[in-house]
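Input sequence (402 aa), recorded before submission:
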Amino acid sequence: MDSLRLRPSLVRARPGPAAAALRRDHFLPPFCSIHRNGKGPVPLARQRAQGSRFDQCQKFFVWKSSYPRIPHQPTATSTNASGQPLKSGAEVHDSASIWKSISSSLDAFYRFSRPHTIIGTALSIVSVSLLAVESLSDVSPLFLTGLLEAVVSALFMNIYIVGLNQLFDIEIDKVNKPTLPLASGEYSPATGVALVSAFAAMSFGLGWVVGSQPLFWALFISFVLGTAYSINLPFLRWKRYAVVAALCILAVRAVIVQLAFFLHIQTYVFKRPAVFSRPLIFATAFMTFFSVVIALFKDIPDIEGDRIFGIQSFSVRLGQKKVFWICVGLLEMAYCVAILMGATSACLWSKYATVAGHAILGAILWNRSRSLDLTSKAAITSFYMFIWKLFYAEYLLIPLVR
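Predicted structure, token format:
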């Protein structure tokens, strides 16, 4: 406290300029001094006469010390026009991160499920099921329920098959399809095992609950062939052998899908006797050609990885160019047969629709195949997806065959 008392001599002294400067120097803090030319601090008060800038600085400190201080209070939460509190920056960032994570997960699963096969499976089942419809009265809630049961259970099995193939092709896909989630590392092998196991269980569970024998046998045979095609066990992994691999795809796409799902609607849903109609025979025959083409063509873009890992596909054994033109020739042959089939139809609208539709598809295929650059992997992959689009288009025409 003694250090805070004013000395009596200063209080009693007449306040001259020197005394006033001393008092100011006594109360100004140490930082209110200025170093000049390295000679040490010079009190601000003693330099008042040396320039107006020192007067301004001194006035600033006086104003600062006399300015009333407002105690700190927490900032009120901003509100919008409706009176609801707005989200803080951290909350907005967290929300954006959550949505980004969800979007990334959905995108990875989308690629894992191989969407072109999903679309093909769904369209084929719907198309073949419509062959069992004899009149508009057949399109009832009973029919739609049976169709939905078939489509959902088949899609679950489809995801199991394509997922299992990716699990055993991780190293190959790092070369051929590096964007797939297992090959890119977005999914761990454990995640892949969990997904394929779950979808296989859901497929069989739904098929069992429905109680349709044709549906359950379709799922079971697809499961067996899909597993034998991919799994790396003795006497299995049939994809290593070109002919056996093609037969697996043909059996599922051409036979199982056409016959089993037609019988599911015909015998289980409509309770009618099994009848192999002309449109059903046409669909089975045409899709036999198409399934062979898909089995052959799918290996053309993958020739590099297949050659490295010893997969003896037809593309590896015969070369890309030869296999490509074999595929085009088979499809053009199938379109010619379909045109003849349509021309012999007794139904006029069916005749025009099937003849014109298959002629247009055949012309588009021929025109595009002539301009394909077989040295470009991107161009070949694009053409492979074009083959799948022709596959979809055919299933739009099949219900018109009468």
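Checked by second reader. DSSP finds 17 helices and two strands in the chain.
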